[in-house]
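Researcher: Re-running this chain for the archive, since the previous output was lost when a drive failed. Same request as before.
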Amino acid sequence: MDEEEKKEVIEDVQAQEQIPVEAEAEVKEDTTLTRESIIARLQEIVGDINIAKRPELESLKQSFYKLQRAAQEEQVAAFVAGGGTAEEFKPQVDPLEEQFRKLMNIIKEKKAAAQEALEIVQKENYKKKLALLDQFKALIEKANTEGASYNEFKTLLQEWKDIKEVPADKANELWKAYQQYAEQFYDIQKLNNEFREYDFKKNMEAKIALCEEAERLADEPDVVAAFRKLQKLHQDYRETGPVSKESREEIWNRFKTASTVINKRHQQHFEQLKEKEKENLDQKTVICELLEGIEYDKLTTFQYWNDKTQEVLALQKKWKDIGFAPAKHNQKIFERFRAACDLFFSRKGEFFKQAKTDMTANLERKTALCEQAEALKDSTDWKETGDKMAELQKQWREIGPVQKKYTNSIWKRFIGACDYFYEQRDKNTSSKKREENANLTAKKEILAKLKEFDADNLTDDDIQAIQQLVDEWNGIGFVPFKVKDKIAAQFKAAMEPFASVVSTRRGRPAQRGGAARESGSPRDRLIRQYEQKKSEIQTYENNLGFMNASSKAGNGFVDAIKEKIETLKQEADDLLAQIKSLDEEDSEN
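Model: Regenerated structure tokens:
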């Protein structure tokens, strides 16, 4: 081989050695995975351990445990929402997790075995290539003395290419020795142009095919997959022999240009991922700050805790939707988030634990009040029992809540006893209203009869009849409060023509002089009744606010008490009017 041909071979080798082979990119997590699909993929890898790649296994492992944590967090949230606490939650044995661990262990063992087998093969291949180098050396020596055929050299080249795996620390050493011997052979071997041109042509066709395949990768939607395929094309380009000098730079530039497109897309893809991961870190930092800023001293009721729990669960869901932060921050920010969540559910558990103890004591106290109310409900001593019931209701208000499962039953028991007492008392009050209406009818009948007399032509029988009607009027009880003034005025107007001959004093005959009342007079009786009514009004007004206004039964109590107070006020005013009427008659007589 002349100096020009030797130079071409060396330049071609140098050009091939300049092809950049970038490190394999990190495998990012596939967010569409499920635990079942991860198990299925691991089973495929177990079936063919040669496809097991460390980045993919790490990604599958990370994805599986992320999904595992998410599933468990949902179970914890559901358990807490059902009334439990995060500390009381006990996860069940997950068969998928056991299968996952089993498959990972199998893969680990198979990879170790495969690696051990590979190392054995690599050592054997290393020995074989050393032996081939000796043959190259012998062939060169033969070429120097008696000449060596090109076919012998091509056979050795093919054998060299067929031996693939060698120890990584020996690969460069072997490659340099091989290149040295190849150059020496071309220097000393007088290849004829026909063979050389044939090799150049075949190599050119192979490299054009590699260029076309690299150019098609620009349309590959999966940037990472395109980058991996490009690495394989680089390896094939290296192993393809030289081409003619005039085509060498052109074909290399074409392949390098196609590679640059893929490498640029790959770089941009991961720059975008890094930017997105930075945004994710900012969002996750804000979530951590919100969780860490919870003011626990203000969470003093079940409702406050439940409302805040919904906020925390919403933040946890948002966290899951955000995606990864940069690798160097991802674990740290997750630990910060996990610590804030753990603190919240720990404090919530402490609150509910103490509340549970308090509610047990409250249940005992309310049960005792139920027993007291039930013992009083049949009493007909309306005044004294009403006061006692009001006191029990006041005590009930001062007792805190009980467990949710007892709230309705204990309340219904207590309110049932109270309702029964007030219903019986109201029935008694209703009978009084009927009596008042009957009294009103009777008084109207008396008014009608009084209109029949002629004041200018009264006989003794008329006067006696009128006096009898007056006595009947005075003997009639209370009328409804809203008409008492009206009916009294009508009676006064009806009696005005007969005032000189008939007395309207209750319980006395007509007389000119005014005798002193005795201690057992009707006035004293009216005064005692009036004072009793005032006392009852005061008692009911004091206890008006005992019921829970949000309760249907509580509203019934309030309405019943208000109605009772109004009735008592009407009766008291009626009594007071009768007392004043007696006093006016005394002063006239």
